[in-house]
Write a structure and sequence with these properties.
about 110 residues; alpha+beta; HIT family, subunit A; five-stranded antiparallel beta sheet; 5 strands; binds adenosine monophosphate; binds zinc ion
Amino acid sequence: MIDCIFCKIISKEMKSDIIYEDERIAVFKDINPQAPVHHLIVPKKHISSLSECTEEDKGIIGELFLKAKELAEKEPNLAGGYRVIINNGKDAGQAVFHLHLHLLGGRRMPWPPS
Ligand code: AMP
Ligand code: ZN
């Protein structure tokens, strides 16, 4: 995916603050953090959005959420709770069309989100 910034981050063509990676997942700090902790958890496979996921992606979707939980449990700032978000599509605010989970916390989060 030539023009996908997250694919470029995954391939190290673009610099980012990667805090975890394995064969299937990369996690890096959001460049414009909305909370004291704001990590992006992404599959290395390019999937443009949750809408594009299929049965074939069941496993990776589970891995993304379990990685969010695992990282949150290691982060003292998230002891009081955290939020995991997927923005799907333009109206939801999706700006980068490579599937990602936002792991956010370290401050009180209003609900409902605006
Ligand atoms: P979304 O609006 O759900 O598509 O989220 C995209 C997120 O990617 C935003 O929170 C951006 O701040 C973040 N972002 C965009 N470019 C980069 C980058 N080069 N490195 C890290 N995060 C980025
Ligand atoms: Zn991509």
